What we know:
The protein has helices at about 20-35, 45-50, 75-80, 100-105, 115-125, and strands at about 10-15, 35-40, 55-65, 85-90, 110. By secondary structure, it is of the alpha/beta class. The longest helix is centred in the N-terminal third of the chain and has 14 residues, at about 20-35. The chain is globular. α3 (about 75-80) links the parallel β3 and β4. A five-stranded parallel beta sheet has the order 2-1-3-4-5, with helices on both faces.
Amino acid sequence: MLAARKMTxxxxxxxxxxxxxxxxxxxxxxxxWGADVVVAQSAAEAAAALGVRSAxxxxxxxxxxxxxxxxxxTGLRPLVLAAPxxxxxxxxxxxxxxxxxxxxxxxxxxxxxxxxxxxxxAWLERA
Length: 127
């Protein structure tokens, strides 16, 4: 007789990135780490894709420059309300100061893009 094994759910990570190559690369890193990954081009798109799972989000990784519309920090507000326990990392390919200022003012972590796999994993595993 086989005993039923209790499956531990994968940690849920949201990636908000408008560049498909960057989104795919982050998705691969996170999948390799063992995460359930939701990729979207905006926070609104991510919230719609998550639905009732929003409260289960453990981490959000967002690009700062998301094209037209709100930046990655400003656009996060509705998603953060739905996922208040999520840790947030802001990525920026341009460190001219605005991404760092906005992320720091909001109390968020910021990392230069492209971020190394080890740096992303270290951020995920930091308590």
